[in-house]
Design brief:
With 468 residues, the protein is an alpha+beta fold. It is built from 17 helices and eleven strands. The chain has helices at residues 16-23, 85-92, 104-111, 136-148, 154-173, 176-188, 210-220, 236-246, 297-311, 317-325, 358-375, 379-395, 401-413, 417-421, 423-429, 432-442, 460-467; strands at residues 42-45, 51-56, 62-69, 115-120, 125-132, 226-232, 270-276, 283-290, 329-337, 344-352, 453-459. A hairpin with a 5-residue loop joins strand 1 (42-45) and strand 2. The two termini are 44 Å apart.
Length: 468
Amino acid sequence: MKKSHPAGFLSVLRPRSFLSMAMTGCLLLVASPVSAKVYNAESMTLPNGMQVVVIPNHRAPVVSHMVWYKVGAADEPQGDGVSGAAHFLEHLMFKGSRAIASGDFSKIIRSWGGEDNAFTSWDYTAYFQSVAKDKLPNVMALEADRMINLALPPQEIEFERQVIIEERRMRTDNDPQALFSEQMRAMLFASTNYAVPIIGWHDEMPKLNRDHVLHYYKTWYTPKNAILVISGDVTLRDVQPLAEKYYGIIPSHDVPPHVRPVTPDFPSPVTLRFESDKLRQPVFLKAWRAPSYIMNRKEALALDILMETLSGGSSTELYQSLVVREKTATDISLSFEGEARGEGSIWLSAVPAPHVTLEKLQQAIDRKLGQLVASGLSAEAFRKAKIRMIDSENYARDSVMGPAMVVGQSLAYGLTLDDIETRPEQIDAVTLEEANAVLKKYLNPAVPEHLPVVGFLVPADAQKQEAK
């Protein structure tokens, strides 16, 4: 992001990730209707190929304006010894155009009482502003200007390169769990650009120069590769003439294909071990490759529901079994990252209870997963998980920014508006048998579809004690 860069696996999380936890206590009785569209979004495409999506919300005279580029860190050139251009460009988009001086973009937005920021992922990059409705034309003018007139002055390149290097140092290099997760991801997606951190590798970032960023900008930042999403107190009828005026006049061009190779399967299990004197407690990590929504939508949706069933709060089976009853862990979570243009992934993280080794915790987790594969999910737990997910999808539309985030992200990595609007229906249609099938296929500790990467993250003093 312009001011902060997340160290997690994706830059943007669907609102259901936090809404489901916040609303769990009051959403178990009955699910919301699943037949209506979630956002009632309106859409059009400008002659230059830019998609325009409007999500009406007339509760207050405000709007969230977002431009999503269908390009991210995974689209950077591979093998040239330089990484981080996508994220670097995101920073430099705030450093001036032919009309706007460096730093003035955000100052102008703040002078209107608004806020702005940006973020980069492996598959997309997004820029957003939240302002009063009457400032929408002004925001469009500013964003359209930097889509085509970015200045990239040499002095800003030099300065901002040091900013992102420091950002990496603070958020990744000084955080053992972030650093270890980065290493695990590099192994999980070996030989593909999903293995490269969004911010770039530490030893490659200093090589970033103006030519790298300018080539990336000219190649990918074009209306045909962008989506305008506006949520708030407007309709498509209000937005269309403004979009035509500010974005419709920008020349467009085709972009290269998005290359997303599949990672070859490991010939044998992979285990990584990392020790750090900055770590206070050990952590067990396990990651599997899995299909994304683009690769296999049916399995991806079943995996999403499986994660919610097993790990969607402290009342779910994994937590109750390993934390409450067996007391082998103090915390455990399981998540699915399926919102990608290429492969997705499943991540398990657990903290062992005092005096429980990481190896013992791993055995307990594998034993529990094996039991679940053999017995199948509880029908009642599965039903409740679907209710939580459906309700959190519907509650997501209550904010102004939330819908723009969900719709923009989903469109940017390759879903359609219909896919997004009918998600509650799709969740409702998934059967217990389908969820059990992906459980057996991807999380079976005996014969998984793809061998996992296992990680032991250990405090340095604990490592020394074990050696004794």
